[in-house]
Amino acid sequence: MGCCVAADRPREEELRSARWNPIVKRSCTDVICLTVFIVFWIGVLAIACYSLYYGQPSRIVFGHDSYGNVCGEEDNNYIEGIDYSGLDMSGKNFLFYMNPDDFTDSLSICVETCPDKMLDSKANVRIYAENTSVELCKYGIKSDDYEVKKFGTDGPCPKLPVSSSFSVFHRCIPNDLINTVIDYLNSVDTLQLVISDLYLGWKQINVLCVLALVLSIVMVLCIRFLAPVVVWLLVILTSVGFIMGTLFLWWTWYTEREYLESVQASNVTVHVSLEENVESFLTYSIIATIVTVILLLIILAMIKRLRLVTALFSEAGQVVACIPCILLQPFWTFIMLISYFVLWTGIMISLSTADESSMDPYTGYVYYDNNRPVSYMWWYMIIALVWTTEFILACQEMTIAGAVVTYYFTRDKSMLSTPVLKSIGRLIYYHLGSVVLGSFLITLIRIPRLILTWVQNRLKGSQNKAVDYCLCCCQCCLWCMEKCMKFLNENAYIVIAIDGVPFFVAAQRAFNIILSNALRMAAINSVGDFILFLGKLVVVALTGIIGLAWMKDDESLNFFAIPVMLACIFAFFIAHCFLSVYEMIIDTLLVCFCEDCRVNDGSPDKQYYMSASLMKCVTDTTDGMDSLKRKKDTNDTMAEPIHLDERQPTPEPVVDDTTSIPPDDNIA
Length: 668
Description:
Order of helices and strands: HHHHEEHEEHHHHHHHEEHHHHHHH
Helix content: 55-70%
Number of strands: 6
Distance between the termini: 39 Å
Structural class: mainly alpha
Strand order of the largest sheet: 1-2
Largest sheet: 2 strands, antiparallel
């Protein structure tokens, strides 16, 4: 076998020992990287303290007037040289612009409430102030003096007419402005109809998302209990689902076209949405036909390897049966990511207001200018966002890998006790530094990609095609490098979970495993991932078919395909959250199998940890490919003397059900 060939390479202490005990022997790895990460996060906390001390998030939430006073705040700081700064604005919670058509140059003040009616003369502004105590002119001007003051953008009184307005984030926005936006949307017929359909169909979209959640759970249960059946069932359902979906789209296009022709024949004015509906469904039908043909060809090419996939899914199903809470890992990761994004956003909002106030010499108003240290802090926080996000995702991969490794290398499965918690404990106690290092390598690639994306957006529309081509090539190379690094990191985390070695040592071993078992990984990993992808497509296809059948007869919808398409997008992401765990489980089982086969030989002193069914299936599947490879190598070297190591028959695995790995005493 490919894994056994790799056993010729020496493996230091493991091959010297009579028995190999994975999981047990380990120590802290990549401590320096963890120290750097802690120091880095001390910098993040320092920036957070700086932003909270010098920043004023209330300026963004409640708004500030032209003199630096935050609306609704009692203790405003006095700014030297600004007469009306430092005023008590308690009770004045809304920001009012003298000229709402020019927010940038207009004088703004804090008021008790936004004007709720049209004021078209100076007298009406004065009467409104006397009746409501809402003064719309500059601070310090009495209502009796309104009619003798100037009305305009620079104040001291508002430009006439003063429109009726309402509050948006404590800013007074004229109703006329909202009406202008609505009129614009109404002028764009298609956009208006799409937004209208999304608004009218939001209940159906939510129901379809719940349906996708139920279908995803059903798919997980099917994989758990009916792995051999569900693989073939997935292939059949996917094929039938896409064929039926494509036929349904063609039938819908045909009926819509027949209806349009009947309307045109009766000399009735045809609404533009009918013609666009026919064209849209024709496009959808053609695309669906192409996708269905490609999908069926891929299924035919991989149909011979489905027996192997059933064994892998059976083994993965047994892992889920022993460790059901492993499916909850994406949920906890999602909570951690959302919590970190909220924290990061709060720090950035505070940091954006930690700037210096200055007086405009022309208008006398206050403006805020970012100083140089704050600009550096922005870049620091962007790096923190990418690095920490990758770190959290890597912790999920490491946790799943550790739990599966514990399952694989425990002979007596009844002795399994909280493998997920023990995996988290080993991660925190020993291997946080390795996860930090792996996530940092991804960050080194992701940051240049973000910078190139920013440069591309700035140069969009430029006439220099050579620069655009070079940027696209750089983006493509960095994208490929990032994907390769993520794949290597994932396998390195699995090796770390097995042997407890530092990251670079694990990455080297993972690379050797990939090279030594390239055919096996190509045959197993790709097919397994493809079947899981088919499972996601089944959820999407069933959701889409039910949605189409449900919304087709809803006369209130103009383009009922739009809500269904949005629901299908949500359905795919929901299914991905559940089924992506299986991808990591299968990848971990493969690496465990390769390491098990490389170190052990099935003898009483070196018994296999793998199950007999898994070894038989994987061996039988790759025997044919290895045989073809040997024949090819023989044909290529016929011209020179050769010596071939005869392939020894694989010994039957000796499984000792009474033996288990020593308990993990280092983890409580």
